[in-house]
Automatic annotation (TrEMBL):
The keyword Magnesium does not apply. SMART domains: CoA_trans (SM00882). The keyword Transferase applies. PROSITE patterns: COA_TRANSF_1. Pfam families: CoA_trans. Transmembrane segments: none annotated. Keywords: Transferase. Its EC number is 2.8.3.8. This is 3-oxoacid CoA-transferase, A subunit.
Amino acid sequence: MNKVMDLDKVMEKVHDGATIMIGGFLGVGAPLKCIEKLVERQVKDLTLIAVVNSYPGGGFDLAPLFKNKQVKKFITAHTGTCPEALEIYKSGELEVEFYPMGTWIEKIRAGGAGLGGVLTPIGVGTLVEEGKQKLTINGKEYLLELPLRADFAFIKGYRADRLGNVQYRGVSINSNPILAMAADYTVAEVNEIVEVGDIEPERVGTPGIFVKAVVQGYTFAEHQEIFKDLWVRTGRLS
């Protein structure tokens, strides 16, 4: 099955009110073209699931989604890096659901694996435990954290073949492989699309069975230029 699709065709499936997972960490390993298309299409009332909200200082990565007020709920582990998100949060236009970073990823892993939840001692005795079931196992208290899934997951890989097998490069392996498993429709944006067999089996980070569509993102050289310009513009590289 050839899973390579035009990004515009994929985006036709995304609807107002959708729950969307987006991979990456502070813009690194993020599906930049997919995010740009979400902004362009102006889909709204989104529930967005991402480990943090944007590159520090905003203006990049997920920031335009918050600036356009397309997100009504944000499920995350950290939201202090994006002025655009903080602005709509302070005005009461954004609901934020926080989890410790490890809990956040384990909830998604449980969603992808078909588990009924995960048990964690993190948050016991704090505000985190409000409304959650507590269990005592071998004399120790745990919170039951329920699985987290989405309608769509947009992930970023280095290469993918036409069957949807994805190879990652560097730190793009951060949240992308876990998110890929926990959505009804997973889209892999990659720098390069190759033929089946060009990716060595041991280099496959996400098997094609989890991927519904492969879309062409920026080339690797373009990707490097985008971040070089960003880092120079924000004073992180001279």
